[in-house]
Amino acid sequence: MTDQTTRARPLSPHIQIYRWTLTMMLSILHRATGVALYAGTVLLAWWLLAAATGPEAYAQVKTVSSAWYGRLVLFGYSWALFHHMFGGLRHFIWDTGRGFDLKHVEIIARLTSLLPLILTAGVWVAAYAYLGAF
Amino acid sequence: MSDMRTPLSRVRGLGSAKKGTEHFFMQRVTALANIPLTLFLVGALVVHAGSDYATMTAFLGNPFIGLIMLLLIVSAVYHMRLGLQVVIEDYIHGEASKLLALIANQFFAFTICVACILAVLKLVIG
């Protein structure tokens, strides 16, 4: 009985065998941004707890979030949110049974890689230009 | 007609967990909820990237903002807990390490959730 479950089964080739495609990259990025956002909730908790704790704790958050590396993290954070959101929207389209033909897969893949970049850039340009995020 | 189940399945004697599509369904429900909530968070992050303490606490202390933050926390944490569960099940194959990782996922998600809720409640209620 055990040999039935432990016998070596034929395996399909892994990703390095195939030509690199945009849809593959998006699939991996969707998972990667998801895991990154998971870790990023530590920052969200830190931000909220610091604001709830008091001015000194909040000053530490402000020091980090105003520094160039903090801004880089926030920029990446917002991009990860947008990218994961558009990846999710792509899955919603697929959930309805639409958009599986190669032409639409390619169109949707391009949109879901470009729009998050444009939105992230737009949001931060607006933040620096109009809202004084400096 | 003979039993279609594998011998291993018969020995374990486990039937359906009766959970069916719950994981998939809740993953999509929280995904849907996360769209407006996440847009709100990005807006809040950008507007308040440079805010001082008084402005920030006044903002987060508003009950309506607090409500949105609480919904965001619960929905986002639920969603990420389901998501990481799948990642763990895909990549960690040892039974013991997989179980430990799944438990760690639960602990992390609940800790983040409760910590954020505690902070928001303190900011709103005082």
Protein described:
The complex is a heterodimer of chains A (134) and B (126). With 134 residues, chain A is mostly helical. Chain A has one domain: 3 helical TM bundles of succinate and fumarate reductases, CATH 1.20.1300.10. Chain A contains 5 helices and no strands. The longest helix of chain A has 32 residues. Chain A is extended and about 60 Å long. Helices cover 80% and strands 0% of the residues of chain B. Chain B has 5 helices and no strands. In chain B, α3 packs across α5. The longest helix of chain B has 31 residues. Chain B starts with 6 loop residues before the first helix and ends with a helix. The interface between A and B is large, with 42 and 40 residues.
Reconstruct the topology from this structure.
The complex is a heterodimer of chains A (134) and B (126).
Chain A: H1 2-6, H2 22-53, H3 55-66, H4 68-95, H5 102-130
Helix pairs in contact in A: 2-3, 2-4, 3-4, 4-5
Chain B: H1 7-12, H2 22-47, H3 53-61, H4 63-91, H5 95-125
Helix pairs in contact in B: 2-4, 3-5, 4-5
